[in-house]
Amino acid sequence: MKIGILTFHRAYNCGAMLQAWALQTVLERKGHEVVFPDCNDVGEWFKLRLDGRGGKFLSLLRWIKWNLKFGGLPLIRRISFGRFLNGCLKHRDLTDKEWSELDLIVVGSDQVWNEKCAEKRNASIFLGEGFNSSAPVVGYGISVGDKALDERTKARLFNVGKTRFAKLSWRERSLKDSLGLPGPVVCDPTLLLTREDYRAVEYKSRFVKGPYMFVYAVSDRKEVIAKARKVAAAMNLKCIVADGYRDDFLRTREQNVWNLSPDRFLAYLRDAAVVLVSSFHGCVFSILYGKPFVCLSGTTTKANEAPGRQQGLLDSVGLLDRRMPVESPISAITAKLRYPCDADAELNALRKPSCEYIDEMLAVS
């Protein structure tokens, strides 16, 4: 069967590309042909900057200025993420004929129904609109992240779910409950695989000599990174920071990873003595790799204590105590980092209903 996956496969984000690779891998192991249609540019900074207003020449000047401002980081990220995209993900522009030959279209996972993440102009694609194919559309792990939906958006998504999708599943129960649509809550595609599976795409070499703390900061970056440096000092560890979005706060600091790509992300996490994160996929891979880790919540994420993605994931594998407020005492955080996590049994239990849904999803075609 030929399957098209609509997700954020081109985004310069480690979690986005790894969840795309994971779902691709699961479906290919079942004997299917998989393709990611290049019909959206979510998170692809290089393309967005070059396609700006004022024509190609002015947009190129803006691109050069942007690189000079950030020390060449945009170009470095373009190369490193592009290497993973082109080497690991089956993606291409589809002709009308190729669209018509698809047997099934899978939307998800990731925050594909979050209009902000989809950057508005791409949003309709993830609602099953804007492409020429008669193949049934199904959803795997649909999410809006921790975004609260207004009534108008709820009504629109409810209508789309009822009329355009043959089957649906959700990454967070909060969205399922909010919309009142059927379908199971499934695990993120990255959790369908084991640590051994990811060896195929890990960067093989070790980057850092000696023990270190790996910090992957996406939410509440300034608060989390500042706290992480203190925790690392208390544990007498090097502090290796991967700031998801570089800013002036970190520009002059040493031991920061600016050219992180999915394969390098896995290698840094693999070789770390302990891990501090403030992201959903940071939690995912800390769990999969059995690392001593803590997920810190700061000013922004504490506002989402009840429905948050991180809480839901950690609770589902019995590790909710690994999520701590950023103002927690350093001694409390270091105490938690003394012990690796062990959630293999819980992960296996989590995978079972998700795998069952995938079989049901594939039977739609």
What's a quick, concise take on this entry?
By secondary structure, the chain is an alpha/beta fold. Helix content is 42%, strand content 12%.
Report on the structure:
It is a single chain. 42% of the residues lie in helices and 12% in strands. The strands form two sheets. Strands 3-2-1-4-5 form a five-stranded parallel sheet, covered by helices on one side. Strands 7-6-8-9-10 form a five-stranded parallel sheet, sandwiched between helices. The radius of gyration is 20 Å and the shape is globular. It has helices at 14-29, 45-50, 55-69, 73-88, 96-101, 115-118, 151-163, 173-179, 195-198, 221-234, 262-271, 280-288, 309-316, 330-336, 344-362; strands at residues 2-6, 33-37, 91-92, 104-107, 137-139, 212-217, 238-243, 274-277, 293-297, 323-325. The chain has two domains: 2-193 and 352-362, Rossmann fold (3-Layer(aba) Sandwich); 202-343, Rossmann fold. Residues 247-252 have low confidence and may be disordered. With 365 residues, it is of the alpha/beta class. The protein starts with a strand and ends with a helix. It contains 15 helices and ten strands. Strand 1 (2-6), helix 1 and strand 2 (33-37) form a beta-alpha-beta unit.
Beta-strand percent range = 5-15%
CATH class wording of the largest domain: Alpha Beta
Unreliable stretches covering 5 or more consecutive residues:
247-252
Helical segment count: 15
Number of domains: 2
Look at the helices and sheets and give the structural class.
alpha/beta
Q: What is the correct CATH architecture of the largest domain?
A: 3-Layer(aba) Sandwich
Which descriptor suits the 3D outline?
A: globular
Q: What do we call the CATH topology of the largest domain?
A: Rossmann fold
For the biggest β-sheet, the strand order reads: 3-2-1-4-5
Mean pLDDT: 87
**Counted beta strands:** 10
Write down the Rg: 20 Å
**Biggest β-sheet, characterized?**
5 strands, parallel
Q: Work out the helicity level.
A: 40-55%
Reading the helices and strands in chain order gives EHEHHHEHEHEHHHEHEHEHEHEHH
User: How many angstroms separate the termini?
Assistant: 9 Å
